[in-house]
């Protein structure tokens, strides 16, 4: 009888040894996660604050392949490498478990909340080195509520866990979501491939209508990683709605003069394309004085440069001396003299130069003074107009 019992014991020990060796041989390497790439400047944060909760309990190091803890850290690192660096939102990292070497409490905020930087979040992740203790996800969720309570705005919590030994977590998640009044989305990422753990994490995510639940394995591909990161953290910036309210051909976003009158030609800033020069005349004269040649040179250069403008108005004016009828004819003569000068000396197409006389009806200075009357005896070269009626 003793001999039989000894034989059975030896058989069991041998089987256990062989099973252990087989388990060591089939132990899998940690998963790798290909980061996503988002075009700079095209996205803005969907949330104001994002808090990662990492399961660092005993089951993460002992169950399944034995790489669950590394996989959990790896998927958070992959998300971190995928986030655009210019988002300007807040991030934090909390973990739960109770390994005697690294924790004095069952859950601990190890990084943040702080303005997001890729290096800052990675440093927090690197600081979690051990896994041990129970799996108090419910306590970690409630502590996360305290982390986020003073931050304001919209929030996201991402739980990375094997989902084991946390039957009270879905209830805690529901209380947390209710406390934030719809401003909290919970996303869960399951590692280890445990059906009961994945189910528990699905229930945690279901506490928020905007949450999601997936496995770490499903995020290994960069395309899947991109889809998750965008759903949880990002939204594409809306294309600017750019009209042209004043119809000048310059979109509103670039229009520095948004109320340009219809029909006026404008520069690249949407402001009226204007050249107003005053050519003054002696009393009762229509002869152009040599001192105004530089002004006429400038007018000719402007007219040539803006060949798209079909008409330039040359407007003649007088002072108030004399009758209205006489001054009307004198103002027309002055305008015609400038027009003829531009045609003769600069080869400008006369069809583009319209001249009009306005007599003494539009003074720009005081007719009671000698200097004022001189200023009123003028021709203005005015750009840019449609043909006046």
UniProtKB/TrEMBL annotation:
Top-level taxon of origin: Bacteria
Keyword vocabulary terms for this entry: Cell outer membrane, Membrane, Signal
Localization (cell): Cell outer membrane
Sequence ranges assigned to domain OmpA-like in this UniProt record: 268-387
Major subcellular location class: membrane
InterPro entries, per the entry: Bact_OuterMem_StrucFunc (IPR050330), OMP_bac (IPR006664), OmpA-like (IPR006665), OMPA-like_CS (IPR006690), OmpA-like_sf (IPR036737), VWF_A (IPR002035), vWFA_dom_sf (IPR036465)
PROSITE patterns: OMPA_1, OMPA_2, PROKAR_LIPOPROTEIN, VWFA
Source organism: Geothermobacter hydrogeniphilus
Region (Disordered) residue spans: 240-263
Name used for this protein in its record: OmpA-OmpF porin, OOP family
PANTHER family assigned to the protein according to its UniProt record, in alphabetical order: LIPOPROTEIN YIAD-RELATED, STATOR ELEMENT OF FLAGELLAR MOTOR COMPLEX
GO cellular component, one term: cell outer membrane
Leader sequence residues: 1-22
VWFA domain mapped to chain residues: 49-232
Transmembrane segments: none
């Amino acid at each position: 009888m003793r001999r039989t019992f000894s034989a059975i014991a030896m058989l069991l020990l041998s089987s256990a040894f062989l099973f252990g060796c087989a388990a060591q041989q089939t132990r899998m390497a940690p998963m790798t996660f290909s980061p996503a790439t988002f075009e700079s400047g095209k996205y803005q944060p969907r949330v104001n604050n994002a808090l990662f909760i990492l399961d660092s309990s005993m089951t993460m190091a002992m169950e399944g392949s034995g790489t669950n803890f590394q996989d959990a850290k790896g998927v958070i690192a992959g998300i971190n490498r995928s986030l655009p660096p210019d988002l300007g939102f807040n991030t934090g990292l909390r973990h739960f478990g109770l390994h005697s070497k690294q924790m004095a409490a069952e859950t601990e905020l190890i990084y943040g909340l702080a303005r997001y930087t890729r290096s800052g979040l990675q440093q927090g992740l690197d600081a979690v080195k051990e896994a041990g203790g129970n799996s108090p996800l419910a306590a970690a969720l409630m502590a996360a509520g305290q982390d986020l309570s003073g931050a304001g705005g919209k929030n996201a919590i991402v739980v990375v866990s094997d989902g084991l030994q946390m039957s009270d977590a879905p209830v805690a998640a529901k209380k947390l979501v209710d406390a934030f009044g719809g401003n909290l989305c919970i996303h869960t990422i399951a590692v280890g491939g445990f059906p009961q753990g994945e189910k528990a994490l699905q229930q945690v995510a279901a506490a928020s209508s905007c949450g999601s639940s997936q496995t770490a394995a499903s995020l290994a591909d960069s395309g899947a990683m991109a889809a998750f990161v965008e759903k949880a953290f990002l939204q594409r910036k809306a294309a600017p709605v750019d009209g042209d309210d004043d119809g000048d051909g310059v979109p509103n976003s670039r229009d520095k003069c948004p109320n340009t009158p219809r029909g006026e030609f404008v520069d690249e800033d949407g402001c009226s394309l204007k050249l107003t020069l005053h050519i003054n005349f002696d009393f009762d004269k229509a002869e152009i004085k040599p001192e105004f040649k530089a002004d006429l040179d400038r007018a000719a250069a402007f007219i040539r440069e803006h060949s798209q403008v079909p008409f330039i108005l040359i407007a003649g004016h007088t002072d108030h001396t004399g009758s209205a009828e006489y001054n009307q004819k004198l103002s027309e003569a002055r305008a015609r003299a400038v027009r003829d000068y531009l045609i003769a000396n600069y080869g400008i197409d006369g069809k583009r130069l319209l001249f009009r006389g306005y007599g003494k009806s539009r003074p720009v200075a005081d007719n009671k003074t000698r200097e004022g009357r001189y200023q009123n005896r003028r021709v203005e070269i005015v750009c840019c107009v449609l043909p006046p009626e």
